[in-house]
Design goal:
By secondary structure, the chain is an alpha/beta fold. Helix content is 42%, strand content 16%. The strands form two sheets. An eight-stranded parallel β-barrel has the order 1-2-3-5-8-9-10-12, surrounded by eight helices. A two-stranded antiparallel ribbon has the order 6-7.
């Protein structure tokens, strides 16, 4: 597939991300292997680049039912097969990684990719990485705050002196290599708490909103708090960028999309909730019908339906980036390819045009 639709200049970016979950296909009962999943993710990134999408993200998990624990390694491999698509973590579990190592890894990725590296930093949906890397879950929030503060300082300074609670002090330490970009774009993943939004604003980082369902209008206060906190801290409005991420499935008609996606979506929440120690019951068709209605934030439907949902959120948030998660619930790769094609050829051109007015 070679579908370059990126012909119209636009500030609005559209891309895809994956968490590399190893779900069982609900139709075949087969579970993809980690090596095959990794190969397919790399191929998806290559296709997204060729199709003219703007960004590709890879998540981080430290469990056997996910294939990727090292996003910078994955993204470095992808960098060698792509030309212009931006490459980001989605997300880096910032609480349990040394910010110096994280910065140096992504600065190296930035060099390898000729200036395409980004970081979305979050706290993660699971806690396995805390004991794995010797951190205490009681320090969950304090670790994130301190690591984010250090990461942003590393981004601005070649040499740094620093003191904190959770890692050894730095005394005129040289931070190498430096990225090709003046600074790596750093975004903070925000799920729904006002404090997380305010912290992202105070720090002057981008805010990546994970909106997985319900009425998107409920996230408007988070965007307002983020921008107000950023302005109060003295950050320029253009520095305070908002991104939206969400589950997405496209087909020629909305009914076809809803019918095709239901087995995968129900399957996804069943195994995700089991992984979190909750009930793994399947979503009923009645619940699913409500979840996929035109008023919700679940991006399931025809290209026109998804365009309308993106543009409604654009009116609410004034965001400049949308990143779709296309590959959940044990979905076979050929359906992911179809989703990339429809997103690039049917959705992206219209959204770019409509947000460029």
């Amino acid at each position: 597939m070679h579908i370059d639709t990126n012909t119209e200049k636009s500030d609005f970016e559209i891309g895809i991300y994956t968490l590399a979950d190893l779900g069982t296909d609900p139709h075949t009962g087969k579970t993809i292997s980690a090596p095959q999943r990794i190969k397919e993710i790399i191929e998806a990134a290559k296709l997204a680049d060729e199709a003219g999408l703007d960004i590709f993200g890879v998540g981080e998990h430290h469990r056997l039912d996910y294939a990727v624990s090292a996003p910078p390694v994955m993204l470095a491999a992808i960098a060698q097969l792509t030309k212009r698509i931006k490459l980001t973590s989605a997300t880096t579990v910032l609480s349990t990684v040394d910010p110096v190592r994280l910065f140096e890894d992504f600065a190296t990725l930035d060099i390898l990719s000729d200036g395409r590296a980004e970081i979305i930093a979050g706290r993660g949906a699971f806690i396995e990485s805390f004991p794995l890397f010797g951190y205490d879950t009681n320090d969950y929030d304090a670790l994130f705050s301190e690591h984010l503060d250090l990461l942003l300082k590393l981004n601005k300074n070649e040499t740094i002196s620093w003191n904190g609670r959770f890692r050894p002090s730095l005394n005129q330490a040289e931070i190498a290599p430096r990225p090709v970009q003046n600074e790596l774009p750093v975004w903070v993943g925000v799920g729904g708490t006002y404090e997380s939004a305010a912290r992202a604003g105070r720090m002057g980082a981008g805010m990546a909103l994970a909106i997985l369902g319900g009425d998107p209008a409920r996230f408007t206060p988070l965007v307002d708090i983020y921008r107000a906190a950023g302005a109060e801290a003295g950050h320029a409005p253009e520095q305070l960028q908002v991104s939206v991420t969400g589950h997405t499935f496209l087909a020629k008609t909305t009914q076809q999309a809803k019918d095709d996606f239901y087995p995968y979506y129900s399957n996804y929440w069943s195994y995700l909730n089991r992984q979190r120690g909750m009930s793994g019951r399947k979503i009923s068709l009645a619940e699913y019908e409500q979840m996929t209605s035109p008023e919700t934030a679940l991006f399931v439907g025809s290209p026109q339906q998804v365009i309308e949902k993106i543009l409604r959120q654009y009116e609410l948030f004034g965001h400049r980036r949308f990143i779709a998660q296309l590959d959940i619930g044990g979905m076979p790769f050929h359906k992911v390819v179809e989703g990339i094609e429809l997103l690039a050829t049917e959705v992206a051109p219209v959204v770019r045009r409509e947000t460029n007015k």
